[in-house]
Design a protein that fits this description.
The chain has 215 residues and is of the alpha/beta class. Helix content is 40%, strand content 14%. About 18% of the residues have low confidence.
């Protein structure tokens, strides 16, 4: 049985390259022939537009699935880059307030994605630049949180990595891990993507080895 790799791209700070990392890394993995699902969990919807999808052209999207319990399978958009997308738009900004009153508010994303997980090799989740319920849902739905930073001093010293780690610990573990993305100021984007992919592969290889040894 194959192991699905679910990766959340996170940072509390905006403008550090989360969406760029998510779009480029996921499309590169899809180009290698892997089955990839991308979830745009940011109300700005830049991952959606980055994949060439109209933000307001989808009847079902991540907002309607999270809040209105739309069938997630109806929200899948097949992009021209061989990756599937669950789109977002500014409507999602209201979800931060609406989620508060809903049951299982911290893990609704994990629940609604469950029917899709067997269909993909990788799931990439682009989280918003905040520490609200959307980010908590994104981290909860993933096994790995990639902490993206620009290499600029203020980004490197932000509390984003620490706070994401606190979120994962508060979610009770469950295999959650965090890693810092390559400092893009000092290496090329191609080398950064390769380094992130290598780190993700090594993490999942170590998990698989541990599962085998534990049997």
């Amino acid at each position: 049985m194959r192991q699905i790799k679910k990766i959340a791209i996170t940072n509390e700070k905006g403008g550090v390259g989360k969406t760029t990392t998510c779009v480029n890394l996921s499309s590169c993995v899809a180009a290698l022939g892997k089955k990839v699902l991308v979830v745009d969990l940011d109300p700005q919807g830049n991952t959606t537009s980055g994949y060439g999808v109209a933000k307001k052209g989808q009847q079902s999207n991540i907002y309607t699935c999270l809040i209105n319990d739309d069938d997630i399978r109806q929200a899948i958009v097949h992009t021209k880059f061989n990756a599937d997308l669950i789109a977002s738009n500014t409507q999602l900004a209201g979800a931060v307030v609406e989620l508060v009153e809903l049951p299982r508010r911290e893990n609704r994303l994990r629940s609604i994605l469950a029917p899709l997980i067997p269909l993909y090799d990788y799931v990439f989740i682009d989280c918003p630049p905040s520490l609200d319920l959307l980010t908590i849902n994104g981290v909860d739905a993933s096994f790995v949180a990639v902490q993206v930073g620009t290499g600029v001093n203020i980004s490197a010293r932000s509390l984003g990595a620490v706070n994401v780690q606190v979120i994962m610990e508060s979610l009770g573990g469950g295999g959650h891990q965090t890693m810092a993305a390559a400092q893009l100021k000092h290496i090329t984007p191609e080398a950064a993507r390769a380094r992130i992919e290598d780190a993700i592969d090594k993490y999942y290889a170590s998990q698989k080895k541990g599962d085998v040894e534990g049997k």
